[in-house]
Amino acid sequence: MIKNAYTKKKIDFSKYVNIETGETLDSEVPGISSINAQSNQLQIVSSEEYMIVDKKAMDYIRTYFNRTEMARIGELQGMVHGCFNIVYKDLDNKIPHSKETLMEEFDYTRNKFALFMKKLYQKSVIYYISGYKDGREVTHIMLNPFIARKQKTFHTECVSMFQDLSKQKIKIG
Q1: CA distance 138 to 156
Q2: Do the Cβ atoms of 91 and 51 come closer than 8 Å?
Q3: pLDDT tens readout for residues 33-73
Q4: CA 20 to 30 Å from 18, out of 38, 46, 63, 142?
C-alpha cells in the first residue's frame, strides 16, 4: 500500500490572522508550532507484514549463536505479533506456537530443540509467559521486542521482561 507522505513545516503563526475574528492563529491555537504539508517527493510504502529489526541487537546476539541458529531467530522474527511479541504458528487465525509446534517447525529433535530454546532464554532472546485459557494452563513464547517487532507499542510488562540487547557490549575474541 502506498500513501502520501507529509513533512512538518515550522511556521510563525503570529503572522497569520483569522479574517473572520481578526485574531492571530497563534492566539486561537496556543502552543502550535508547525503544520503537516504534503510532500511531493516522498511516499509511504506500508505493509502489515513488515518488521523492525535492531541491527545492534542482532550484532550482539550473533556473537553467541551460529549461522543456523541465527536463521532460526530470523524465522522467529517473522512469526511475532501483538503487544507481548508472542510467537505465532498462524498469524491470520492468531494461533500461538507451543514448544511442540515450534520444534516441528524448526525440524529439531527434542534434545536439540531444548538446548536451543534454553540458549535463547539465557541470552534474553525469548521469554515464556504462562496463564490459563479455557481452564487449562498455556505457555506462550515471547520474542524480545528490542531485537525485532512488527509494531511500536508494547505492554509495559512485556518490555520489563527483556534486556535491551542493542545496548550490550559485544565480546570480541
Answers
A1: 21
A2: no
A3: 888 888 887 777 777 778 889 999 999 999 999 999 999 99
A4: 38
Listed in sequence order, the residues at least 6 apart from 43 whose beta carbon sits closer than 8 Å to its beta carbon are: 2, 3, 4, 5
**Residue 52 amino acid letter:** I
Residue 76 parent element (H or E)? helix 67-78
Q: Is the sign of the CA dihedral 102, 143, 116, 55 positive or negative?
A: positive
b/e map 98-111, b = 16+ CB within 10 Å: eeeebbeebebeee
Q: Which residue spans within 82-172 are E strands per DSSP?
A: 86-90, 95-96, 126-133, 136-143, 148-149
Per-residue pLDDT of 83-120, as tens digits, reads: 899 999 998 888 999 999 999 999 999 999 999 999 99
Q: Residue 66 has what DSSP assignment? A: -
Q: How many DSSP H helices and E strands does the chain contain?
A: 6, 9
Question: Backbone phi, then psi, for 127, in 5-degree steps?
Answer: -150, 150
Helix, strand or coil, per DSSP, at residue 34: strand
Please determine, looking at this structure, whether the domain spanning 52-167 carries the CATH number 1.10.10.10. Answer: yes
Domain limits, the chain: 2-45, 52-167
Stated pTM of the model: 0.71
